[in-house]
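Sequence in, structure out. Go.
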Amino acid sequence: MSVESLKFPVKTRNDRWLDKAVFPWWPNFTVEQLLIALIIILTLVTRFYDLGARTMAHDEINHVVPAYTIENYVYDPVTHGPFQFHALALSYFLFGDSDFSARVPAALFGIGVVIFTLFAWRRYLGRVGSLCAATLFMISPYILFYSRYTRNEIFIVFWGLVMLWLFLRYMEDGQSKWLYWLTFITAMHYADKATSYIFTAEASIFLALLFIYEALHRNWKPANAKNRFLIAVVVTLALIVVTLGVYVLGKTPAPMQTGVIPPEAGGAVYLINSKLPLIASAGVTGIAAIAAIVFLVQGLGWQQIRSSRTFDLIALPLILILPLLAALPLTLLGFDATDYSQAGIIRSGITFTLLAALSVLLGMLWNPKKFLRCAAIFWGIFIVFYTTFFSHGEGFFKGIVGALGYWMQQQTVERGTQPLYYYALVQIPMYEYLPALGTVIAFIIGLSQKLFFAKVNEPFNHVEFVPAESEVPEMAAEDDQNPVSDKESEIALPAEAQFDSEELQLAEELLHEETEQEEPVRPGGIRRFFTEPPLDESRAERLPTLALLLFWSVMSLLAFSFAGERMPWLTTHITMPMILAAGWALGYLIEKVDWQEVREKQGWLVLLLSGVFFIAFGSLLGSLLGTEPPFQGKEIVQLQATSDFLLALVGTIGAGAGLFALLKNWGGANFWKAALLAFFGLLSLQTARTAYRAAYINYDNAMELLVYAHSTRDMKDTVEQIETISKRLYGDKTIKVAYDNNVRYPYWWYMRDYPNKVDFDQNVTKSLQDSPVIVVGSSNFSKIEPVVRDEYYRYDYKRMWWPNESLYRDWSLASVLGDLKDPAKRSAIWQLWFNRDYTQYAAAFNNPSLTLATWSPSDTARMYIKKDIAAMIWEYGVSPEPEAPRVDPYAGNTVSLEPLSVINYAGETPFNAPRDIATAADGSLFVADSRNHRIVHLDSQGLFLNAFGGYGNVMDGDIPGGLMNEPWGVAVGPDGNVYVADTWNHRIQVFTPDGQFLRMWSVFEVNGLPDGFWGPRGIAVDQTGRVFVTDTGKQRVVVFDANGTYLTQFGGLGLEAGNLDEPVGIEISPDGKIYIADTWNYRVQVFEPDPTGLQFRSARLWEVDAWSSDSLDNKPFLALDNDGNVYITDPDRGRVIGFDSEGTFKVLWGGFDNSYPMGVISGIATTADGKVWVSDSTSNTLLLFQPPE
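Output:
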């Protein structure tokens, strides 16, 4: 410690106005204290005002619910680290569980960010700079919004803010306590979110560059070691680039070869498919890095290196987190780091143990005493949080590999598939333009004034770099172990600092203690590498404050733009360093302005006229560039435009003339600094307005881009209505409420204390009629209708919405310039940015889905209230207008049937999701046993004859015929051969009845061009041997001869007769008509060929009250009996519906009213005597029914 640390920060000529008394009668209450008080009060108000009003968003639910039952919480990397869950549980304990209390931790940390900036960062930003930075944090749209949002982001901002400060603080005086605090902050970050790995990487890069810069200015013995070190560093950097390139190529899909159709699901082919090149490249990079370290040690000596505070800051975090990098080697070796099976845990444990041993070795080499203390802090915090205070030990094993392992897996997932420019050109210009501008100005100032490194406590005073000989004690010769040199004991008192006698006496005592340190004894041999390094708490003369903030701003932008998902909330981490840099720049400008000149030369009038000038000039540009330029005609609108232009022109000229007269005697530099500050002031008002609108006006809708998947206000309204109904009926929350998987977010949270809630996922059953209130999302609308019928009132709501990404997708320089040249689009963009008014934008860009009523993308929900319950609770006895009762078109002949036969096994293997069924001429059955990847042959009684097939996936490489990947369709030709739609291998295969492979085809030529299937599901063979395939993914039917030669196709996506949408089942009548289950058009369509047999037209169609779900299992098949009747399956409702050949309804069985419950009914076939076989892919059975006459 030195005298210089007794008072800080050093006061400058232009910040002493902060020390003036606000009131003459209260001399101790200064302007600075007033500003600090105002900032803190406004921060408290903005963070806590109406905190619980907003509906819990989708991402908030993942945190608030597990914290509600913290005793059952086990760490899961999908929902990030455990710290937030514990913080939320504490908030629930103190304040009760509510939307408000769930956001209290975020609000407190948001306040902490501002307060820490005010009091801690004033050391490095200056008093004015810290006030500016704190104000920017207070009004930042992103920092404000996520200080009121239950995610980890504001915690990460706080950890990062403190971490950067601790870097500078330790560089300044080298006291050990700062390393211990840095360890605490690092541990909390690693207990919070995997962004900690990105922060550590950014810090390591900056500190490594700084260390190399410092090392190159020291004495090297031998001198040629420096050259070898430089060469090794350059080679290492080049190899890092190569390794990153190999990694990127390993994640880049390879171009598809002509004629090869990718699967809808499964593996993918990349430019580099082997991990060996990445492992080899990483290995060579490691060798080059080790060589650089060896040359460094040779040239400077181990003690010299350990004397560097920068080296301490590099070594400590990397050594501590080394065991947490276990996922990296596991992934490189081809293992799944998130495999929590017994074998996976053993693998992870062994890898962790080896890395932990290496961490201990390196830590003891670095600094034994500090390492052990820091390790105790870090791992103590890690274990406590990841085991939920020692109650769930498995959390520790998940924690050591889960965060990094999951993050590495997510590198192949672009959640939201945001463009690369998402932050730089979308989020920052929309919200954080003020910190971005301040960062640019900070760079310009730093470059022009050489302030990237500045004097300690004087951030705007440059200090030259001192060569190694006079900067640090000579330590290249390891025999000289004296930690304090004469040079270090000298004290330079700043001219502005004044010290009293007591302070000077204390300083002398401290210096006396430092100079009396005993010379350490130097151990011999290898032990010298494990000694304590020399203690050096001398005060640094300069710090890389601005260099650190600018580097962190740029690297954060790059890191979060390239590292995996690009989501709005990550903008907070880019904003944090930019605000600090902007605060530094504003502090510089304010302190460097000659305010005496400003006052003497009527600065207040200049400011007023500047505001008038900017407003008038803006209106002038708006008139010229708007949709109605001046002097275009004599219509009222045109004359008004001309009038507005002339008024703006007069205002601009008048204000400009006044400014010219007032400023002619001003110094140019002083004017531009003041003008820049005035411009910042205007932007600050717009930023505050932007933040206010996002946090308090548009917080529950999709007008803002700083939210992603967001629940609407409607959902909170439904919850309040349910609570009202329950309390009126029962006096508490014991009402039975049923909800599905769609509205689980946010109902998982809001129904937490409803004891009779029913989360039925997507399993709609008749038992739901016991619930007075049912809430479902859009994917289950069709399923719920048979349950509610006409017994419930229905209310429609918006459930969730997402940002309209058409606003910023597919930008190119040409498209952007074209938009800016169009007056209507230019005006629309301005209105969107300035007012969040989408009206002009919707018209100019022909996008009608930009009002809250029509917003897309969004999703809907419905709440059903039982009519007898509703009649009991509506105010004043008035009930809502009921809908017309729904008419069940099949109610007239719905029967309940018991199966004649139930078959679960085919041989010794149970069925697994059986699909299509085909009947051979001898009455035997062929069944597509899809998830067993085989075809099963049964006799007419259902007895097992044989099976053939086996799993094979074309995405794993060439596979022989006979292997399959979820076959859905099967048919028998007139020659007895079996035709199979090998769905996810996108091909057709042909077998003999006993399972001998004959031939297959997947690629065929259409009009001279190669073509292929996409998920073919249905297949049929006519009496001439022609093969008809429903190419479901391409909305068509493709026709081949028996050998696979392409003949023709028909269908195509559409609603008109002849078009198809998701065709699946297909059958051919004896007279050659083709019956098709036209699934998503909700109809059966019948085609007939022309005389050539190559053209097909839609002969008739009929709609069916079925197939309205878009689930993956809702793929219906159909069958024809000998009387021409048509039977279709209704998979999701578990029904079979019969029609005659003209589409007249005949019979229905299954569904909720059937005595024998059926699941997802998929395949269907008829027998010669009129019986019907169906496949149930839920219960994995074949069922035989006898339809009624």
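Check: The chain has a mean pLDDT of 85. Residues 668-697 form the longest helix (30 residues).
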